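Q&A FORM
Asked by: J.P.
Topic: structure of UDP-glucose 6-dehydrogenase

PROVIDED:
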Amino acid sequence: MAPLKVTKVLCIGAGYVGGPTCAVIALKCPHITVTIADINKARIDAWNSLDFNLPIYEPGLEDVVRQCRGRNLFFSTDVVKGIKEADLIFVSVNTPTKKSGVGAGFAADLNYVELATRQIAEVATTSKIVVEKSTVPCRTAESMRTILEANSKPNCRFDILSNPEFLAEGTAISDLFNPDRVLIGSLQTTEGKDACASLAAIYANWVPKENILTVGLWSSELSKLAANAMLAQRISSVNALSAICEATGANIDEVAHAVGYDSRMGPKFLKASVGFGGSCFQKDILNLVYLSESLHLPEVASYWRQVVEMNEYQKRRFSKRVVDTLFNTITGKQITVLGFAFKADTGDTRESAAITLIRDFLSERAFVNVYDPKVEESQIWYDLAEACPTMTLDNIKKQVKIHKSALEASKNAEAVVIATEWKEFKEIDWAEVYKHMKKPAFVFDGRLLVDADALSKIGFKVATIGRPSI
Ligand SMILES: NC(=O)c1ccc[n+]([C@@H]2O[C@H](COP(=O)([O-])OP(=O)(O)OC[C@H]3O[C@@H](n4cnc5c(N)ncnc54)[C@H](O)[C@@H]3O)[C@@H](O)[C@H]2O)c1
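REPLIED BY: S.T.
REPLY: Here is the structure written out as tokens.
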């Protein structure tokens, strides 16, 4: 039999991955009807909102949705209908770190993947290609296959593929338009290879064939964890060096530039910072740690664990630098935190370094002023309440104020801390900010974003990651 020509795609999960990924499939494949379904009604309502007030912010995303929504792209809470109609189903649900039970704090919580898989088995009356898009531990596809086969109806076969997503938030749309590679893992059987060809044919509508890599199922699953672990490792390596720079007078930007000039290294992803965040790096490394431990490879586990520990150290080290520099106490002082998202060009706050910094400042009883151009106020309160379980939200609100601009947030502050590399923070009228701050006025640049010398000329005392203070 020739590989199935897919005409109806369902994506289960309308989040940061499912939404942009399948919207781009709809844009690039007008002959395919794409439905993105989610149990979260508020999220689906936002995807369907008349004013395109989408639930996630990504540059270029709104334009894609405007072109396809109602044409061949639909958002729905009706997962059952979607399953029945689709030839190919992406499972793009969340896989957070487990909070309790075996593997708590390390292993991925596969409950959402399992529930979605069981629902596919229960509802499907025709054969489907089921694509694991969520990031999952090795051999999850095997478990999905077992569940599907044990619950399937006669004449209903399921082929499982692994197709991990490599997009980065903030650049999701350009990453999806021009991916470095698309990776598809399948069983190496005739049926598995046919299913793989069906999915590859979708991507071939816009991705050059040589960039579509096909491998075995488990290589595909492990490649995603490996890619994230190695990217995060690069950040932790450069951050470890930034501590040496601060102590010696070397400049981390110069060191990273020199190192990155080596063609074996390349210049990307060598920026020191207050630490990596986001929903993936930490979770995926911890997953790899758990996997290594389960495979009785303790040395491998502790190697990868150190990448996360270095990240925690970097955040701690930065908050401590703020306290030390402000004459060893920030109690009762006004500290302004610019940026709450985990990186620029996203409204996502999961594992954001800003949360850890603010938690540390609150524990020192400082007053914190926050400004972020994209993060909703309700999200900031939600994250701070979660990060500070010993404080009531009312008490948090007595110590934290959320502002509408960087300038407003900086008034009467003793220090401004840059936690996210939003471009607009580079373009602030820093002389104006300086005028309205208490003196001496400090800037702590956790993202190597601003021109430290120019700020110093204005009168600021500037502390930058990976450089001695000026
Ligand atoms: N965010 C990233 O940058 C990124 C990049 C690559 C891979 N990933 C991986 O992709 C997966 C999804 O990540 P995300 O950031 O999109 O998560 P997310 O939390 O933004 O979205 C997941 C969505 O799935 C929905 N969902 C859960 N169970 C469901 C069910 N049974 N039926 C219908 N909807 C259901 C949730 O309501 C939620 O809206 C994760 O495994 C993640 O590790 C994320």
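FOLLOW-UP: The chain is about 45% helix and 15% strand.
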